[in-house]
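Run log, item B.
One chain of 134 residues. Sequence copied directly from the ordering sheet:
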Amino acid sequence: MSDFILDKCLLIDDTMIDRFIHGKLLGHYKIAQSIDECSGGKEALVYLEAAIISGNVPDLILLDLMMPEMDGFEFLRPYHTLIGKSAKKPLLFMVSSTEDERDINRAKANNHIIKLLRKPLRPEYLIDLIKTRI
């Protein structure tokens, strides 16, 4: 039996260094055994569509707020429809360094987002949040 908390995580972030750091933290703290990455919302929607078809939907999604082309909130509109086709619903956390109260309140109001987490990610805090949901 695996000592990881979750099997699979999807990182959605346009910044390669953030994906690298978050991926290393998820592995080091044994949060997720497998970590896939997408560099933007459009790529992530294609990934998720294939994951739903194959029955390999991630357990956890870390979604960056501020990305070019499609920001995190714009991603959530088609995500809502897409994930509605899946029996499995990933735990979704938005990740950002924003201090803007409008973004924070908008994240709180979205029922797909469990919590808006601050960058840099605090793995112990994420673990506590995940354990209350699984």
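Observations after the first pass:
- The mean pLDDT is 96.
- The two ends are 17 Å apart (CA to CA).
Flagged for discussion on Thursday.
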